[in-house]
Design brief:
Arc Repressor Mutant, subunit A, three-stranded antiparallel sheet, three-stranded mixed sheet, 18% strand
């Protein structure tokens, strides 16, 4: 009986620590906080924790995650930025449903090995990587996503991978759903070195 009480105390203490962190915790952070791996497994087996990606747990008592894949990738690869079709989807300027999370990393970085969710890494120059980043809080996790204008410039740069039909659809939806910021798009297009490519399409939408 005393052992069961101790285990219950350890589980409650662990849940409190995870709550204080926003309800999501990496295994490494849990160990650093003094949570025993056995306690994590007990919470998981009891249905109090769920595994959302390898080494990342969330409390089931908190609200369902709105973008679990983005949260998982941001937790596993904190230096990455959501880009291309995944960013278009986040900003609701595409009809495409991403089958993987597209993220950028600096070109001298090494992609992380992630088993789930599926991730497509794209290497950006340092200037392009750092430009146009927005930070969004999702379930206590900071998720970095490129702004709509930077995303459009990126899509023009990677138009052969994304598909020109998807790029033009995104530009059309951006114009109809957001304030058209010609200057910002062109500014990012220069950084991405596609300003000459994108200019005729921008002028056609003025």
């Amino acid at each position: 009986m005393p052992n069961e009480i101790n285990q219950m105390g350890a589980r409650e203490k662990a849940k409190q620590i995870i709550r204080q962190g926003g309800g999501i915790i990496k295994t490494s952070a849990a160990l650093q906080a003094g949570i025993h791996p056995r306690t994590l497994y007990q919470l998981r087996d009891a249905g109090d924790l769920e595994l959302i990606s390898r080494g990342i747990y969330r409390l089931t008592e908190i609200e369902p995650i709105s973008n679990p894949d983005l949260v998982a990738v941001a937790t596993r690869v904190p230096n990455s930025v959501v880009c291309l079709i995944s960013a278009l989807s986040f900003h609701e300027i595409t009809t495409q449903i991403p089958h993987e999370v597209s993220v950028s990393i600096p070109k001298d970085s090494k992609p992380s090995l992630i088993d789930y969710p599926p991730v497509q890494f794209h290497k950006f120059s340092l200037e392009s990587f750092q430009a146009g980043i927005e930070k969004h809080q999702m379930d206590g996790v900071t998720v970095k996503v490129y702004s709509p204008e930077k995303t459009l410039a990126d899509c023009f740069k990677f138009r052969n991978k994304v598909g020109m039909d998807i790029v033009l659809e995104a530009l059309k939806l951006y114009k109809s759903r957001m304030r058209f910021n010609h200057r910002k798009i062109l500014e990012y297009a220069r950084i991405c070195r596609v300003d000459k490519v994108i200019s005729p399409y921008l002028e056609a939408n003025l």
